[in-house]
Specification:
Elements: E1 2-9, E2 15-22, H1 25-34, E3 38-44, H2 52-60, H3 67-82, H4 87-97, H5 101-115, H6 120-125, H7 133-145, H8 148-202, H9 211-245, H10 248-257, H11 265-285, H12 290-300, H13 304-318, H14 323-330, H15 335-347, H16 350-406
Antiparallel strand pairs: 1-2, 1-3
Helix pairs in contact: 3-8, 4-5, 7-8, 8-9, 8-11, 8-16, 11-12, 11-16, 12-13, 13-14, 14-15, 15-16
């Protein structure tokens, strides 16, 4: 196939342009007319060799595919499937209307896979960085059951909740992170640039300086003399932590401990359990077998520890135990949730009650996120007070000590 650049006008007469793969210019025209665009100009797009000088810089600075892009993709696919648009024509329209180069390449590759005869789930599985295992599994279930439109609708709602939770947490943590970073930078600047000036001035006096001043001067001298080694040690430490977290044991231990972190541990746990309940409900309602659904859901919670607990639930169900007993053995659900699971299992309304459990965890997560600012403020105030005190001692205590040394009063404070 050849890549063609095209310009045309949509149904409202607005100018549109883009690129499409086709065997000929007439093939491009057919695709454009199918999506309601009247072509004005169609010509072969410049080859990679023509743009090699600037292409590497463009690729380096190209934006990646984000969760919001996948959310928009899911909504668009839901609308197109609901309208009865054939899938190849739907992807041709999405490729022609996308403005983000990374999204265009993603849709282009998926469309190429579909042209080769692959199923949509298999085409999406070629991009594991953009589509999660749960997403791909739900698409596969939709293909098998013929409910792909409904699956795209549910996935859109699922991704919307995921995005809202992450954005709220980022918004709450943005101000504390900025303040804490500014204080740390100020502390480093004072110890490296300000205190050494006082140290040179103190060298002209032969009086004994207070112990606090000597500690500050010693710490500043250590940072000035050994900052390359300290910087290297920090880099090596960060790399070592990343390598450790990249191992199965390291990821498992970190995922387990972050659920018990003060302030944010409860938010992470509730958000993960809400993701579990909604994912389990979606897979069960879509007709996925219970054991297979739990296998997929265990990988969708994005927490190795919780995933292992869900896999233990799956193993218990395979042995013939009830869902409620397996959930109780996992040790991560509250008694209220266990009671709701028992009722759902007895009445056969497990899907509906799982959605209720998901909404309950989502409301609890939303409430805790709203309270996060009020919870962080006292902790942030204490940290700020400590750092300001250190910076104040670093500036004013040497001045006081210098005055004492100048008047011959070298006693301690």
């Amino acid at each position: 196939m050849t890549v063609y650049a095209w310009r045309g006008r949509n149904a409202r007469g607005e100018l549109a342009q883009g690129k499409l793969d086709a065997l000929s210019e007439s093939g491009v025209a057919e695709q454009l007319l199918a999506i309601g665009v009247t072509p004005v100009d169609i010509s072969p797009a410049p080859s990679k060799a023509d743009t090699e000088g600037s292409g590497w810089w463009a690729r380096l600075n190209r934006e990646k595919v984000t969760m919001e892009d996948i959310l928009i993709f899911s909504r668009q696919m839901f609308t197109l499937n609901k309208a009865g648009v054939p899938i190849l024509r739907a992807f041709a329209g999405l490729q022609g209307s996308a403005n983000k180069p990374a999204v265009v390449e993603l849709i282009k590759d998926i469309r190429s896979s579909l042209d080769q005869g692959l199923e949509l789930s298999s085409a999406l599985a070629r991009h594991p960085k953009n589509f999660s295992i749960f997403y791909i599994s739900m698409i596969r279930v939709g293909e098998i059951t013929g409910r792909l439109t409904e699956v795209f609708s549910r996935l859109s709602s699922h991704l919307e909740f995921e995005r809202e939770v992450r954005e709220r947490i980022k918004q709450v943590l943005r101000y504390p992170t900025f303040v804490f970073s500014a204080l740390i930078i100020g502390l480093v600047v004072i110890n490296i640039f300000v205190i050494p000036v006082f140290a040179k001035m103190f060298a002209n006096f032969h009086a004994e300086l207070p112990i606090y001043t000597r500690i500050i001067l010693g710490f500043s001298g250590f940072m000035v003399a050994w900052w390359p080694l300290l910087l290297m040690a920090a880099i090596v430490g960060v790399m070592a932590i990343r390598v450790y977290l990249g191992t199965p044991e390291g990821r498992y231990q970190w995922d387990r401990r972050k659920l018990t972190l003060p302030i944010i541990g409860g938010i992470i746990l509730n958000a993960s359990l809400a993701r579990f309940a909604r994912s389990f409900a979606l897979s069960s309602q879509s007709g996925v077998p219970l054991v297979q659904g739990l296998t997929v859901v265990a990988q969708s919670v994005e927490n190795t520890y919780l995933g292992s607990q869900i896999e233990q639930m799956r193993d218990g169900i395979e042995r013939g135990e009830s869902i409620t007993n397996c959930a109780a053995a996992a040790g991560v659900f509250t008694p209220l949730v266990l009671q709701m699971l028992a009722v759902g299992e007895e009445t056969g309304e497990l899907d509906a009650l799982l959605f209720d459990i998901a909404e309950m965890y989502e409301r609890d997560t939303d409430y805790k996120i709203k309270r996060l600012t009020a919870t962080i403020e006292p902790v942030l105030l204490v940290i700020m007070a400590g750092l300001v005190l250190i910076m104040a001692l670093g500036v004013f205590l040497p001045l006081w000590s210098m005055g004492q040394a100048a008047t011959g009063k070298g006693g301690g404070i």
